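Lecture 7 notes: from sequence to structure.

We start with a single chain of 584 residues. Read the sequence below before looking at the structure.
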Amino acid sequence: MTLRSPIFRKLLFSAFLLIAATLLALDFYLTRYTAARQTEQVQRRLTSEGLVLLPEVSDVPPSQLEDWTRQAAARARARITVVDPSGVVLADSEHDPETVENQAVRPEIREAYQGRVGASVRHSDTLDRDLCYVALPVRYSTKSGFVLRLALPLEELDTAIAAVRWRIVRASVLAFVAALLLVYLFSANFTRRVRRLQSFAETFVHQRGTGTLLPDADDELGALARSLNQMTAETQDLVERLKLESARREAILSSMVEGVLAVDHAARITFCNESFTRILGLPAGNLERRPLVELVRDPELLEMLHQVISSGAAVKRRLELPAADGRSFEVQAAPLTASSGRGAIAILHDTTELERLERVRKDFVANVSHELRTPLTAIRGYTETLLNGALEDPENNRKFLGIIDAQAARLNNIASDLLVLSELQSDKHAPEAERICVREVIEAALLTVESEAGVRTVRLICGPIADVNVFGQRIRLEQAVVNLLTNAIKFNRRDGEVRLTVERAENGDVRITIADTGIGIPSQDRLRVFERFYRVDKARSREVGGTGLGLAIVKHVVERMKGTVNVQSELGKGSVFTVSFPSC
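Now the structure, written as tokens:
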């Protein structure tokens, strides 16, 4: 029964491999250690022999040098070589020096040239065997730079290593048998205890955590048994908490304004929230496991998700989705690791409104810069003209000063209107709404524009004025009505008319209507006339001194009072502006 246990066989086999690897490593280490020790002994012996031979070689005549090397080799029981300062072999005890190649590049020779004892172990090409070399610097014929080299074959080292390895093998066999017996006993006991834990775990799964496991020892398996007992009490609580956390996460994702989409490695939907289905107009219901390509036709979104799945790197892009009516989205996609493979999760943040506001901001800055530059250029130009001599010209100096005054007034009007717009767009320091008599506001506004209407020969016709009231700020409502009347007068024809009426609509709202007989507004410009600095007829607008902010102020005032403003116009026949407020 024990031998058929997989864990028993694994333990036994692992022990076998461990013992074998240990013995092999020990053999390798001891072999290298023995070789190093033998090499050190050989080098010490050759160094000693060389120190003995140094005094002799200094006095040997060149003609007797080769005989001396053979005699010295017999005494030292080593190969003797004498090398001159250029690396040429002068004499060698075992080889004809004429056939030996230059030795200057040999490591032990280079060391000796530097005045040190050089040593190396390498293969000799001349003798075709491994040798241990020792080279000593020597003075020969009263000249320095010569080298006396001794060399010895390493066959003795191989013999010593083989003897050590044989001893290791015999010791290893005995250690292997003893260790295998101990591992067998340990593995049998370990397997029995593991099976007991396995039986308890299977019972825990099938009977949902009933029963108790008694530890049989104070070791790791005993600690595991105690942990399993504790797990039976905590698992149910953990499962309940995981269910709650999953439900909470599901609720958060479902309630997000951003669209959330998760797909698996095959680009099948694993989760998408309600916002995602609403953005892309997908059918309601369970979309899990459905291929994304069947529901989403946008190639950029599909390519983005496939890139994340294949590369495993997060991607961030701005996309315009045709299925979302061309709205712009900032899409952030990141890899989603799952057991079945790498998927992807994407979050779609609608940036359409932010981009529109950014365009409005840029247009506003450009328009303000342009509107301020025009009068400033005129003021500076006419000022320079006056300073350059025109101030003494009685025919033009007053004309130039009048132009400067008009442009300064225009700058003042632009600054005032910008401040009004800024105040209207900010809720800070806004006065509380009050009950306003519309009749009083209309009468005050008519008095304000009466003189300008007379100058331009435009008749002001006041129609029925209902006795109604609205909530808001009186000064702002009066300013809005004045702006509408001023526009109707400025862009009217000579001997034209401006008609103003106030009535209560069928739904109870207060309706103020201002109609003129002016130039009218082209259909393509009607939706933009309430934008800041937008002009239908730019040349005439500058001629009559407009700032381009009047209708923008009207729109903000009306919206702040929870009202609406719209325009109807026919080119060449005039325009009708209608403002509606809730009555009070």
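Residues 332 and 558 are 39 Å apart (CA to CA). Keep this in mind for problem set 3.
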